[in-house]
């Protein structure tokens, strides 16, 4: 039976493929295809892992003290029984032999199938055995991690992937850190039960240009392992087991968007100038040093936002030191070859926690309301040693090109002064250590209403500002950007948000200080003309969005549109603002 599941469209395009259900806690398990002749070796890995876990459980059983509860021994027996269940083992082997999944993936794929059967059981005792199976799988995965497999997790076999059915990932949730695994995975799209339009999971999906739908609430319950699904990333719909006619329509749309993409690609190195001759800078948002090359190839004239915190994720608790960070920043700066690279200091907290094992995170683990808690610059100022290391690393990279330093979530003068002091100290320490550095421009993210309202203060202390609309909307409207339950209220068209954005651009322009927008609004074609009309001349977005935004800019007369902004700002409701803008602007757009 075909069903449709609705969610929030967060990354455009169509993906068609077989569903791979992955429990949220296992999104980071390696997913790659093996070559058919490697199946035997992969099955061997499974066998070794099973023997290792069985020996571990037997040893545990022997060590159970006499006085311990008899239930403990019974539990270990259940785990051992599961481990030796031939039907289960055969099913896992099938994923390897017939579908060419690596061992870790095969185990988790079968776990999803069996977990579903447990969920449907009437008997409560049997239903609860699911937790036991999960523990056994956890042990198996740990045992497998001692032996990285035929190709190693880092080498997803894309060659093999092209021979297999395309795959899409369905999970209850995916953490931003786990999204980084996607960059080298075999999945062509994903759907999650939770999340909002500007949650970092959605942002990373857009940066990779793969179709995604979040906030579906129950996709992971409704879809079964291996179902054929279509992800419509434009409409925010997941179609499970589509009828042939629907499938054909989506295949057609997929081909159309590939053609459109190829057409836009030709624009990438064209100069970006409006019809009235205004030069516009299109910069890139990146997450990792290696993305810098992608930004350049997409035609970016610099990096407007390097989210440095992604370098601190997936590290198994060991954070990068000054030297490692320096090398990472230098890679990005050298790739840009003299074009500016705006490095934002670490913005952890909220929906971007550091690794669980990190001592820093453990210390602040029980934050009640993380979006309002120890996040971004607040976190850095509470960890002066780490902040110093990061500042020194960035300063050292500045001798290899043009570096700009960007501070997230500043709201207080006190914070500005502390940042200046930390920067001076970092320079002194580099002098003492004999390391060279250049002068870097210092900028502030305007993403808290307090900063937008006190912009003159910020303009006195900073060389440039960058509007982080994702958080500015979140904090102006008091909407958690990652919470799908209130996603309908998260609205960039809200007149209060537009007023703060317009006034920030106008005041910065009047003061002669560079201003850009680096939130998702900058890469959303619905806002391009409005931002131009507000006076914005610098946009920073995912590399994949640059060409389509450029196309809109090339067709816009910014001077003609400028007079329309006040109607929009005077609207009472987000819908009124949107309609007021679109109806007037359309008449003037070419
Ligand atoms: C923003 O808040 O708009 C922004 C660009 O920063 P981030 O999305 O990383 O919070
Ligand atoms: Mg932000």
From TrEMBL:
GO biological process, one term: phosphoenolpyruvate-dependent sugar phosphotransferase system
Domain called PEP-utilising enzyme mobile: residue spans: 165-236
Catalysis performed (reactions): L-histidyl-[protein] + phosphoenolpyruvate = N(pros)-phospho-L-histidyl-[protein] + pyruvate
Active site, per annotation: 200 (tele-phosphohistidine intermediate), 518 (proton donor)
Keyword flag Metal-binding: yes
Protein origin, superkingdom: Bacteria
Binding site for phosphoenolpyruvate: 307, 344, 470-471, 481
Known EC number: 2.7.3.9
An annotated GO cellular component: cytoplasm
Places the protein is found: Cytoplasm
Necessary cofactors: Mg(2+)
GO molecular function term, any single one: phosphoenolpyruvate-protein phosphotransferase activity
Domain PEP-utilising enzyme C-terminal: 262-556
Domain Phosphotransferase system enzyme I N-terminal: 7-129
UniProt entry tagged with the keyword Cytoplasm: yes
Residues binding Mg(2+): 447, 471
Keywords in alphabetical order: Cytoplasm, Kinase, Magnesium, Metal-binding, Phosphotransferase system, Pyruvate, Sugar transport, Transferase, Transport
NCBIfam families in UniProt: PTS_I_fam (TIGR01417)
Function: General (non sugar-specific) component of the phosphoenolpyruvate-dependent sugar phosphotransferase system (sugar PTS). This major carbohydrate active-transport system catalyzes the phosphorylation of incoming sugar substrates concomitantly with their translocation across the cell membrane. Enzyme I transfers the phosphoryl group from phosphoenolpyruvate (PEP) to the phosphoryl carrier protein (HPr).
Family listed: Belongs to the PEP-utilizing enzyme family.
Protein name according to UniProt: Phosphoenolpyruvate-protein phosphotransferase
Organism: Vitreoscilla filiformis
Native organism taxonomy: Bacteria, Pseudomonadati, Pseudomonadota, Betaproteobacteria, Neisseriales
